[in-house]
Design brief:
Elements: H1 2-8, H2 27-38, E1 44-46, H3 57-64, E2 72-74, H4 81-92, E3 100-102, H5 109-120, E4 128-130, H6 138-147, E5 156-158, H7 167-178, E6 184-186, H8 194-206, E7 212-214, H9 223-234, E8 240-242, H10 249-260, E9 268-270, H11 278-288, E10 296-298, H12 306-316, E11 324-326, E12 331-334, E13 337-340, H13 346-356, E14 364-366, H14 374-386, E15 395-397, E16 403-405, E17 410-412, H15 419-429
Parallel strand pairs: 1-2, 2-3, 3-4, 4-5, 6-7, 8-9, 9-10, 10-11, 11-14, 14-15
Antiparallel strand pairs: 12-13, 16-17
Helix pairs in contact: 2-3, 3-4, 4-5, 5-6, 6-7, 7-8, 9-10, 10-11, 11-12, 12-13, 13-14
Amino acid sequence: MQYLHDTFKENKTLIKLNLEENPGSYCTVVSAAIQMYNDKTITKMDLHGKSIGGITMKVLTDALINNETIIDLDLSKNKIGIIGTKYLSDVLQTNQTLIKLDLSQNKIGDIGIKDLAGALKDNKVLTILELAYNKIRNNGAQYLNDALKENKTLIKLNLEGNPGSCCTTVSAAIQIRNDKVLTTLNLSQNQIDNNGMQYLYDVFKENKTLIQLNLEENPGSYCTTMSAAIQIRNNKALVTLDLSNNAIEDIGAQQLFNSLETNKTITELNLQENNISDIGIRYLADMLRNNETITSIDLSKNKIKDIGAKYLGDALQNNKTLTKLILDSYYYDDDHGDKKTNIISDIGAEFLANALQNNRTLTTLSLQSHQIGDIGAQHFAVALQNNKVTNFLSHLILTNLDCYTLDTQRIEPLQQQSIDQTTRSFEDER
């Protein structure tokens, strides 16, 4: 077959050479090469499952290097491996025709991907590259990501079925960066962890079209906030954001609140049960100083304490938008006994009450099941007396459970009152 190949390289008339069902390993590639050399009308070549090996790929790539018609080449389910990928990579550096290339199931591995990535860095025409099931690990995914950062043409990079945990996000990053009409992307149930999420950060900063990004049921703690951040920035119709029970924690909260700082559409924010502590609340307070749209925030069942109450109190001093703030606490049972979520005492109540003396917009503040006693209630009473705004704070909910008796395993409510009752007592005193 080598003799035939050398002879046919100079032939300019033979278009089709049928060598099917012959035992020679070169038969398939020699036939394909002849067609590449002489058929000036062929645009698509299907060579999937032909047992093409690494060495025999040299015959094919010699023909492909000068071909100006083939735009779609399918080499899936072969055995081109590292050597064959090297030959193909050399061609891709200069090829100006090939638009779609399928190399799925070829045992390329990270070493082969390194060569291919180097070629893709300079390629300006390839738009679809299939690399599914090629034993690509995170090193290979990194090679592709680094090489394709400046690439503007590749729209689809399929890395399905590869063991690298970052393969999915590298593939998604390419699509998000270059597909200018992409509005919806589903990456749910892909085992995306926080390491994988790093490949998406930079492309999200520049993207203006993606409205819905589904990252549900992935182990990465940043997935929820990343998905939300995309919606916050790009979805101009979004007015309500419900992220309850997502365990975004403080780092996720920081990302979320940074995105919300300049948002002009979202009015309601539900962050119940997210393990947000005083650290995360500090980021929220910073956001509230600049955001002019959000009117309702639910922070029930988090980990907010008196310091967090201080941060919120400072922010409420000058906020002119927020009308409803829910900070309810909750008792729950686990293997270590009963625990409580938000815990605000009389100290935290004083911080919030001080803010209410100057705040002119808040109409509902809910602090159910905290450790606020008579002293804390008095702070709120003074604040309401000093604030002269009509209809100010129509609902102040102070249903407190501040006495927990471990030996009897019961909770005794010491005080329950509504603002309606409080207001009437204030009027009587006046």
